[in-house]
């Protein structure tokens, strides 16, 4: 059996680093007033880092290698050298900024083991700093192949409140590649004109000359050309056919010069010829929501996944046929009345208006509540579960809310719908369900995403509606 004495080895190499008199590498790190010179041994650097293996392969006539790393601070590089020589790292009492700098430097120096550890440390021990620096982190690590965890955490943080993010100043700080990727994926579940307005603000922010030039009449031809070049990859991704003629006149027409001629001609053809038959709100006989929210719900139904790439036909029309309204058909305790209306039906939308509030909740199930007899399973408790990958639940702040709505899609497909004798409907075990005159939102078992973030809430229901959903084709 081999005996290993790592502690002594680490101690000896630490001494070699601190008292090196035979060094052959000099590295100057930092910039401006924060500069420090480090001395090291090429053989150790090359053994521990592919980056150094390449950089220090050539020794000059003085048997020395010298180079600069201005984008790494002395504090960070000191930690890196100690790790390289001894395998030791102590991040206690280090600032989030220094730890993040260590992550970035680890990527640059190709020290994968260190990078993975620091990434996990940030997410476990420095999560508050991460949450306060989402844009900085995302802009930095978006293309780091080894930082998927940190990148995905930042993206998911943005996804949780896309409506607020797209209209905030934070969105203007995104790097081009990230902003372009988000628009390609069509994650911003909001009106297209909001995306356009944010895109213009983002593009203007990239041109220092235009930042304080609010009056378009003072723009030069070069200003428009600069903006056109910056937004050239974005313009084809905007679905202009979803923008009203009024918004087009106010918000897009002034920027005609930045839109390619072929796209602009198609837009004008749409507004002058096709719009009357293509642009209309979905009709819905609801006392709870306005028709424009039905358009939004139909978009959620059609997309199935919030990260799908934008398509030409983004919002196929759906029909919403009312089959149950509580004030007309019996409310709350008459569970059988509601269930009988839903029996045999496929896709169903439910809407719930709560008491003493403008708040609205709802859910969509592509499989109905008890209609697919060959698509269920029974657990050990005897509960019947229905499988679906298309279901989602949602909330609106009021009956025409297009900015603060939330959507949570099903996560556990095998438990998308629970059939239970005492409740009107169950999305998941307890993600969203109605019993008696109360609506419950718990999500203790994570069957749906937690974007509603209202665990443990109970609401008294004022109005309840159910609709059969079919394609209008």
TrEMBL record:
Residues 23-93 form the BTB domain. Gene3D superfamilies: 1.25.40.420, Potassium Channel Kv1.1, Chain A. Pfam families: BTB. Residues 287-470 form the TLDc domain. GO terms for cellular component: cytoplasm. SMART domains: BTB (SM00225). This is BTB domain-containing protein. It comes from Rhizophagus clarus. The lineage of its organism: Eukaryota, Fungi, Fungi incertae sedis, Mucoromycota, Glomeromycotina.
């Amino acid at each position: 059996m081999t005996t290993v004495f790592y502690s002594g080895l680490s101690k000896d190499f630490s001494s070699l680093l601190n008292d090196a008199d035979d060094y052959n590498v000099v590295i100057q790190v930092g910039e401006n007033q924060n500069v420090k010179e480090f001395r090291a041994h090429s053989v150790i650097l090359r053994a521990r880092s592919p980056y150094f293996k390449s950089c220090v392969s050539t020794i000059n006539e003085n048997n020395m290698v010298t180079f600069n790393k201005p984008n790494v601070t002395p504090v960070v590089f000191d930690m890196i050298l100690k790790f390289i020589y001894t395998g030791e790292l102590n991040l206690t009492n280090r600032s989030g900024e220094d730890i993040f700098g260590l992550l970035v430097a680890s990527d640059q120096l190709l020290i994968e083991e260190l990078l993975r550890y620091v990434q996990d440390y940030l997410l476990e021990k420095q999560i508050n700093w991460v949450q306060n620096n989402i844009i900085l982190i995302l802009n930095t690590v978006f293309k780091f192949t080894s930082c998927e965890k940190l990148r995905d955490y930042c993206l998911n943080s943005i996804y949780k409140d896309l409506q607020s993010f797209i209209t905030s100043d934070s969105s203007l700080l995104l790097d081009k590649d990230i902003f372009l990727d988000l628009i390609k994926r069509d994650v911003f579940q909001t009106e297209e004109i909001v995306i356009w307005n944010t895109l213009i603000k983002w593009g203007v922010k990239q041109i220092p000359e235009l930042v304080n030039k609010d009056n378009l009449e003072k723009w030069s031809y070069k200003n428009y050309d600069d903006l056109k070049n910056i937004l050239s990859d974005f313009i084809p991704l905007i679905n202009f056919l979803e923008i009203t003629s009024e918004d087009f006149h106010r918000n897009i027409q002034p920027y005609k010069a930045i839109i390619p001629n072929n796209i602009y001609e198609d837009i004008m053809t749409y507004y002058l010829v096709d719009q009357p038959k293509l642009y209309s709100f979905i009709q819905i006989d609801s006392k709870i929501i306005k028709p424009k929210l039905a358009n939004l719900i139909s978009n959620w139904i059609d997309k199935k996944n919030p990260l799908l790439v934008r398509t030409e036909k983004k919002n196929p029309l759906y029909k919403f046929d009312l089959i149950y309204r509580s004030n007309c058909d019996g409310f709350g305790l008459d569970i059988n009345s509601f269930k009988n209306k839903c029996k045999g039906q496929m896709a169903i939308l439910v809407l719930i208006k709560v008491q003493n509030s403008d708040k609205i909740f709802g859910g969509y199930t592509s499989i109905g509540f008890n209609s697919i007899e060959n698509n269920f399973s029974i657990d050990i408790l005897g509960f019947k579960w229905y499988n679906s990958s298309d279901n989602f639940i949602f909330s609106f702040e009021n009956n025409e809310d297009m900015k603060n709505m939330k959507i949570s899609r099903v996560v556990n497909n095998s438990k998308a719908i629970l059939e239970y004798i005492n409740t009107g409907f169950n999305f998941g075990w307890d993600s969203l369900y109605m019993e008696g005159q109360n609506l419950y939102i718990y999500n203790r078992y994570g069957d749906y995403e937690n974007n509603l973030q209202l665990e443990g809430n109970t609401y008294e229901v004022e109005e309840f509606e159910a609709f059969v959903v079919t394609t209008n084709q």
